[in-house]
Amino acid sequence: MAEQASYLFSTRTSKVLAEKIAQFYGQEMGKINFQEFSDGEFEPVLDESVRGGRVFLIGSTFPPADNLLELLLMIDAAKRASAKSVTVVLPYYGLARQDRKDQPRAPIGAKLVANLLTAAGATRVMTMDLHADQIQGFFEIPVDHLYASTIFIEYIQQLKLEDLTIASPDMGGAKRAKNYASHLGADVVIAYKERKKANVIEEMFLIGHVEGRNVILIDDMIDTAGTLCKAADILMANGAKTVRAMATHGVLSGKAYENIENSKLLEVIVTDTIPIKTELSSKIKVLSCAELFADVMKMVHEHKSISDKFII
């Protein structure tokens, strides 16, 4: 029986990351032709046969919504081209913050995205650091949920920081911070925040002691960076020696770059799930997730266990 072929394609905005993944995977990116109409409509056309093969479609679905639509059209194209399986590689899962109905008449966007991906023809989803773990349960197809901890913990160990403390910028990230601390033999503190509306913090309080400690804030994403900068202020005011921040997804909207550059944060480390404009802040460092995704994609294609790729 002939070995099943694999094919890699990318959305336009995730092309840089996809090419890195392809390099680690050991295969060139598949050719795709984007036809555009004068009104803004576009049509992605696969430029090579994928019949009977495993197709990996790589694309983060950060705004604008065209990124999600483009990915859905590519899934549909692969399915209609008789691909045997279509694995959607979503380094950043857009709308993941809409994971529950937290107020009357609100949508559950994360579930809607899951429905759309499945309806389009995806047979497997691979993603990293979902905003809420329960999003995996929105799917009726296999979901490989990877963690940036496999990248970040190695970086933290290379820093060789004494008096290390891991901090969560909110109550929701307490479990994540505790898991990091357990692997690193560090203490844990929590910054408790109260919001009146999205992206606006009313008050923040520190739970724990950080005097004389080197603190690393751990989060799944940085949006406007308001939370992280406020947390850094409180940590430094309570006697921390240094404060760094690590987050998987650098959404970095609004005045995020300016906020980070003017903050008390020593450095901010993110992955490349979303393209980062590092030239806008000298404090931002990007670690690539390409090798991790390439390794897991290869294991999935070869029907091997991926359990050793999970730390947290």
From TrEMBL:
InterPro entries: PRib_PP_synth_CS, Pribosyltran_N, PRTase-like, PRTase_dom, Rib-P_diPkinase. Gene3D superfamilies: 3.40.50.2020. SUPFAM superfamilies: PRTase-like. GO terms for biological process: 5-phosphoribose 1-diphosphate biosynthetic process; purine nucleotide biosynthetic process; ribonucleoside monophosphate biosynthetic process. Coiled coil: none annotated. PROSITE patterns: PRPP_SYNTHASE. It catalyses: D-ribose 5-phosphate + ATP = 5-phospho-alpha-D-ribose 1-diphosphate + AMP + H(+). One of its GO terms (molecular function) is ribose phosphate diphosphokinase activity. Keywords: ATP-binding, Kinase, Magnesium, Metal-binding, Nucleotide biosynthesis, Nucleotide-binding, Transferase. Its EC number is 2.7.6.1. The keyword Zinc does not apply. One of its GO terms (cellular component) is ribose phosphate diphosphokinase complex. It is an enzyme of class 2 (transferase). Residues 8-121 form the Ribose-phosphate pyrophosphokinase N-terminal domain. NCBIfam families: PRK01259.1, ribP_PPkin. PANTHER family: RIBOSE-PHOSPHATE DIPHOSPHOKINASE FAMILY MEMBER (PTHR10210), RIBOSE-PHOSPHATE PYROPHOSPHOKINASE 1, CHLOROPLASTIC (PTHR10210:SF41). This is ribose-phosphate diphosphokinase. It comes from Chryseobacterium salivictor. The gene is prs.
